[in-house]
Amino acid sequence: MSSLVIADVTMVDVCEGRLAPSVDIWVAGERIDAVVRAGERSHDGARVLSGAGLTALPGLINLHVHLCLDSSADPRSALVGDTREGLLLKMVEHAALTLSGGITTVRDLGCPGDLIFALRESVEAGRVPGPRIVACGEVITRTGGHGSGWLGREVDGEAAVRRAVRHQLKRGADGIKIMLTGGVLTPGTSSHHVGFSRGELVAAVEEARRENVLIAAHAQGAAGVETCIDVGIDTVEHGTYMDARWAEAMVEQGMTWVPTLSPHRCAGRARQEGKLPPLAETSPLRSTRRKENYPRSLTPEALGRFASFGKTEGLCVGVGSDAGVTFTPHFDLVTEMEMFVESGFEVSQVLHMATLGNAEILNLDGSVGSIEEGKYADLLLVSGNPLDDLSTLRELVTVIKGGEVVHRGQLGNRCGVRHRG
Ligand SMILES: [Zn+2]
Predict the structure, then answer these.
(1) Which of 92, 197, 267, 290 lies 20 to 30 Å from 6 when distance is taken between CA atoms?
(2) How far does residue 111's CA lie from ligand 1's centre (Å)?
(3) 262 and 206, same structural domain?
(4) Nearest residue to 129 via CA among 331, 401, 413, 394
(5) How far is the CA of 260 from the centre of ligand 1 (A)?
(6) How far is the centre of ligand 1, averaged over its atoms, from the C-alpha of 6 (Å)?
C-alpha cells in the first residue's frame, strides 16, 4: 500500500478547537495511518507533500445539497427542460465543483429518478471525481406538493407513503426525504401548510425507523416544524420559523435542525443586483396563499433570532447550504459557515459543526469528519489559520479525498509533491 506523508503541517484539531503545530499526517492508501510529531518517523519510501506554512483541516461536509440543480436563476425550469442524459452530465460537473470547494462529503436531499445513485456509484468506483454522496434519491411528496414533477414522487395515503419509502430504499436510498410543506421553488405551494396527514407522516417515519435510516423533512413554516416534532422526524430542513419552544422540544427528542441560511443571502444578493426578478405570483388563484410565503432575504434580526434558537442548550444544528438552488453554488459551504459566525457562533464551533458535527449527524463519524487514525484521508490544505478567519477556506491550496489529491487551488503550486525511494 502506498504511503503519503503531509509533512510538517499545522493541523486543526476540530474536537478541541485548536491548532496542532508541526505534525506529519501519514496516509496509507485511502486512510489516515497516523498523526505524529514532524519528523518522528522516517519519510524514506513515502511520497512527501510539504505542508510547511500550511494548515490542514478535515474535508467539509454539506448536509443539504441537490447535485441535480444548477444554481441558476431558475433551477427548476433548467431541470425540467433538460434531458436525463444532459442532467446526469451536469451532475458530474456539480460533483467536481463540490470537491473544488473542499466539500468531500454531501447529503443529497432530492434528485429525480435514480441519477444520484448512478453518480454515487461512479464516484465510489473512482470513475468520476466527486464527494462521498449520501443520497435520498427522489423526495416523497403529495399530489401537487413541493417537488412534484421535478424532484420526487407523488404519493397519497398511508399505504402508498409506506410503499414509497420501501421503494426508495430498494432503489438504493441511504435515507428518506419527505416534503412536509410547500416551498419557494414549486409554484402554487405554500410554505405554511402541511401537505400530508398525520397518518401518512407517521407511516413514513415508521418505515424509515424500521430500516434504521434517517428521515429528513422539508419544513419551512411554523406548522411544518411543529409537525416534525409531533411525528418524530430526524432532521428538520430549513425550519425558517423556528422558535424557542420548538428548539427545546427538538432537544428533548434528539432532533437535528439544518437551517440552510445560504439561499437567503445568495438569492437576496442576486435580486439586489437585478439578476433575479422579484418572485412572481404564479397563479392568481393561489396569490393569497403565496403572499404569506417565506421571508425573501434573511435580515440581521432574523439571523440573530436564528442564533438564539440555534444555540439552545443541546440542540443539534447541522450545516447545509441547499447547494444548487437559486444562485447557491455547489462549491460554497463557506457562506453558510460565515452566516453561522455572524449570527453568534464561534468560528471553532462552526468548523466542528461543518466537519465532525455533520459526520455525527449522518452516523459517519467513524470514517470522516476529523483527521484521525483509521478515518478516510479527506483533508484540505490552506494557508493561514481558519480558526481566525473562515475566508481562508475560499482559497484552498489542496483538496485531498481518500488519500488522493483531487483539487489544487490557485495557490496549489506552492505545495510541491516530491517522490522519493
Ligand atoms: Zn433543498
Answers:
(1) 92
(2) 10
(3) yes
(4) 401
(5) 8
(6) 36
* pLDDT higher than 70, residue 188: yes
* CA 408–ligand 1 middle distance (angstroms): 29
- 228 — pLDDT class (breaks 50, 70, 90): very high
What distance in angstroms lies between residue 2's CA and the mean position of ligand 1's atoms? 39
Half-sphere exposure of 263 (CA within 13 A, CB side): 27
- Can you give the residue range of the structural domain that contains 114? 60-361
Find the 237 Cα to ligand 1 centroid distance in Å.
Answer: 8
Same domain assignment for residues 22 and 98: no
Q: Tell me the HSE value of 328 on the side-chain side, using a 13 A CA sphere.
A: 26
DSSP 8-state class, residue 343: T
388: CA distance to ligand 1 center in Å? Answer: 30
Say if residue 19 is in the same domain as residue 124: no
Q: In the structure grid, which three cell numbers stand for residue 297, read together?
A: 432575504
Question: Residue 152 has which C-alpha cell?
Answer: 420526487
Give the number of domains in the chain. 2
Model pTM score: 0.92
Q: Are residues 286 and 319 in the same domain?
A: yes
Is the domain of 279 the same as that of 376? no
> Distance, CA 323 to ligand 1 centroid (Å)?
8
Compute how many other C-beta atoms are within 10 angstroms of the C-beta atom of residue 200. 23
Per-residue pLDDT tens over the stretch 382-403: 999 999 999 999 999 999 999 9
Q: Residue 243 belongs to a domain with what CATH number?
A: 3.20.20.140
Q: Are residues 401 and 343 in the same domain?
A: no
Both 51 and 69 in one domain: the answer is: no
Q: How far is the CA of 282 from the centre of ligand 1 (A)?
A: 20
